[in-house]
Amino acid sequence: MSLPWRARAALLVCCGTLFLGVLDGTALNLALPSLQRDLRLTTPELQWVATSNALVRASLTLLCGAIADRYGRRRVFRLGLAVFVVGSLLCSVAPDAGWLIASRGLQGAGGALMAPPALALIANLFPDAQRRGRALGTWSATAGVSAACGPLVGGVLVQAAGWRSVFLVGVGGAGLLYLGTRLLPDGRVDGPTRRLDGLGNTLAALVLVGFTFALIDGPSRGWTSGAVLTAVAVALVAAIGYAPAARRRPDPVLDPAHLAVPALRGAVLSAVVAYLALAGFTFVNTFYLQQVRGFSPLETGVLTLPTTVGTLVLANVSGRIVGRRGGRLPATAGHLCFVASMALLAVVVTTDAWLPVLLVGYLLLGAGMGLVNPPATNTAVNSLPGERAGVASAITSASRQIGTNLGVAVLGAVVVSVLAATGQPTDDIARVAAESGDDFTTALRVAYGLVAATAVVTAWATWRLFRPPPARKEVVADADLAAPSTATPVT
């Protein structure tokens, strides 16, 4: 029996928001050099532009899930879409760094409001298990298609109309989707809902913001500067205070007891490191291809397609393995692909590196993402009781945003620190990459080597922590099951 037209149209609305979010992130990656040049951004400001979306999403995702359960999923979804439109519009007219960073954060808030209720709304639309499975397959396929289209569409937009056009596409598309939200069910939760944990969410956000500030601003301000030390101190105090605060709350935003489950810890670690590798690579590689090698934004988008292809192909393979044998093997293999990719790039990346070898490294990175994503999600969801599966899904989704945030912050800090050690100025990374390609590629080799070493440890930990899922029916996984994140991730 065919699906009712109303359900199909509502599914299109949910998937459309995912498509726009991925497209926005991948296109922005290609625009970073021209954006830095046009707005005269310093390197830390550029990092904040790239990571502010993911930082806000990571800080708010768990809280917004509880808000959606309490106030209605359609209502919160529509609010998130409206916030995303406003944030995109403000980004498109940003005159300076502060405006753009704040607007990107507003986009992230909109994404955080949309993401948690989206899959729950799909479940409301398709109560039949078989139809729900097909709907979720459509959702995951949308993420993959948008990731595949993103580099090409972004390259065309940036090259033809400039970086501001990236955000204007989001404004128009989201505006049209907003008209279709009336087709969505209300999505209210029957019975008692989770209480909001404002204190816990604030403490968790302080941890993320404090460490991110230290990593991004540390190289320019000085690692022992008052601002950096204060940020680290605030983050440490918040981290230490979170567990006692959570024990006193009936519904903490993140129950520390959940992370006592080895499989969930493994899934979180796997997701964080995978997205750290992808986001960090995407951030620095954009400057390598455009500034060091001289490729246009469109050519850069084409050259990075092997990463997307590897993800799409291996995600299907990994999903089948997870269904038959559990997530340990594909997740471990995925991190070994990261080791191979980053080690290869650390050896070969130079100002005139042979492109086919670079493309092999890009393909291996995508293969790692494709292998890691399905087991990270499914292992997390099946590591907690069925009634807490939504919490586990939200935790892994937030982990991806944390990894994305850390990738830009950590690899950016490594590259800037190495450049400073070689005597290069670090306030304009695009100019340094264009004028001192040898020093920039030296910094890239150090950064890629660090990621490769991290992936080795993570592969070992993944093999130890992942456990075969218990013999029970799997529940809905999260939005990024079969598709990569972006440096400014899915909204």
Automatic annotation (TrEMBL):
Per UniProt, the keywords (alphabetical) are: Membrane, Transmembrane, Transmembrane helix, Transport
Membrane-crossing segments per the record: 49-68, 80-102, 138-160, 166-184, 196-216, 222-245, 266-288, 300-317, 353-372, 402-422, 442-463
Subcellular location, record wording: Cell membrane
A Pfam family recorded for this sequence: MFS_1
Give membrane topology per the record.
Answer: Multi-pass membrane protein
Domain called Major facilitator superfamily (MFS) profile: residue spans: 10-470
Cross-referenced PANTHER family, in alphabetical order? MAJOR FACILITATOR SUPERFAMILY MULTIDRUG TRANSPORTER MFSC (PTHR42718:SF9)
Q: What is this protein called?
A: MFS transporter
